[in-house]
Amino acid sequence: MIDKNGVPAERVLDEIRQLRAGDRPVHGGRLFAYVYDPGVGGLDALGAAAHAESAHVNGLDPTAFPSLLAMENWLVGAAGGLLGGGPGSAAPDVVGSVTSGGTESLILAVKAARDARPELTAPRIVVPASGHAAFAKAAHLLRVGLDTVPVDPVTLRPSVADMATAIGPETVLVACSAPSYAHGVVDPVAGIAQVAAAAGVRCHVDACFGGWTLPYLRRLGVPVPPFDFTVDGVTSISVDLHKYAYAPKGVSVLLHRDATLRSPQYFAYADWPGYTMVNPVLASTRSGGPIAAAYATLRHLGDDGYLRLAATTRDAVGTLAAAVRGVDGLRLMAEPESTVVCFTGTDPALDLFVLVDELTARGWHTQPQLRYADLPASVHLTVTASVAPRVAEFGPDLTAAVAAARQAGPVELPADLVALAGSLTPEALTPELIGGLAAGLGLGAGPPDRMAVVNTLLDAAPAALRERLLVEFVGLLQRPTW
Ligand SMILES: Cc1ncc(COP(=O)(O)O)c(C=O)c1O
């Protein structure tokens, strides 16, 4: 409850610091998901100071706050220039918007594609199965059909032929990833863009994750296939600045090849008694803080800075991948071609979810990925430059964690839980059942230390049941404090 007389500033900050002590460490190179840390001294302070300068500025009206418009236009220019657009390039008319994140960029790419075809009553999008879940969210929110194209279990990419076959008369957008989040592989963008263009359909490249590193990796000699506006048929690209541009959270850029393609992304409304409204993005009021922080981060790190960070990251990826190769019972899902190391198990006696917990116990926070279609469960590592100084410690800890996981043996769910997971339909989940399941899984008073049992249950359940369980479990955590 809100305090009657308020709380002194220092005490509030102390409270936040104490709360933060329970979080995973955002610095130190041991968290392989959620955070992107370049390990550059002073960058947090710069971002915070820039954020503070513009936190109360409102992006709702660019004429009232030209500072924000100027910074936004600069960010779009920086992203467009990096991704094959700008003066003298194959895509000289690139335009864009700054959004709050990758999900918003993808929703807006789908919205623009849908609203460009108002004559279609049942618009659809074609997305590889490895495409980010945000495409499914966009399809759900915008009531657009989702046609998912399977990925090859070895290359982890969709085939161009399958993508072409999935395009129909109602398709408004074809998507691909550069690279995919789960495995870090780059889709055959040129082929996909070509079949999309041949069908007269937009092609969006989701470079949210790797759009800021792939160009630098290429400059360092890594073989990166064409994926940006240099590819004919690519109509839009998203790139998240709060990922590998290392800006504080809340900033992504959605680029379109030209302003005509972008136009249906906007929402304007003048048919009410209040101010006339024009929103390029989903939010109406939006803080200038994240935009200013991103502006400061990009200006400060500069081109050379990003090149250096990409080289450091590439080396760290190499060492981590070698560590995985060196452990019996593990196999890389794909040879790393960007900044992801993803591995699976080859030995039934080694439970990956137990391994993830054993790594956590040793201070390494990796991300478990549940099995999907032909793909086995896997462990995902998003690698950032801050990992480099710690990377030599990973191999020995991985070996020890694997030994401990083997010794512990695979998770065995209680028989009644297994029976429940096999027989339950999402509709049959009552609040009592959820409560019982949560208690059985140790989810009673917040997230448990060890997640293997929860992951095993989710892994055993079909997707619809997984989704419902996730919603209910997180719903249990999100309860007001009084
Ligand atoms: C390829 C890709 N697209 C989209 C997203 C969604 O981004 P956000 O979490 O910023 O909404 C992510 C996030 O990891 C991603 O990796």
In short:
This protein is α/β, with parallel strands linked by helices. The chain has 16 helices and 13 strands. Belongs to the group II decarboxylase family. Sphingosine-1-phosphate lyase subfamily.
Q: How are the elements arranged and paired?
A:
Elements: H1 9-20, H2 43-54, H3 66-82, E1 95-99, H4 102-115, E2 124-128, H5 133-142, E3 145-149, H6 160-166, E4 171-177, H7 189-198, E5 202-206, H8 214-219, E6 236-240, E7 252-256, H9 259-262, E8 267-269, E9 277-279, H10 289-325, E10 330-332, E11 340-345, H11 352-361, E12 367-369, E13 378-382, H12 391-408, H13 415-423, H14 431-440, H15 452-460, H16 463-477
Parallel strand pairs: 2-3, 2-4, 4-5, 5-6
Antiparallel strand pairs: 1-7, 6-7, 8-9, 10-11, 11-13, 12-13
Bound molecules: pyridoxal-5'-phosphate.
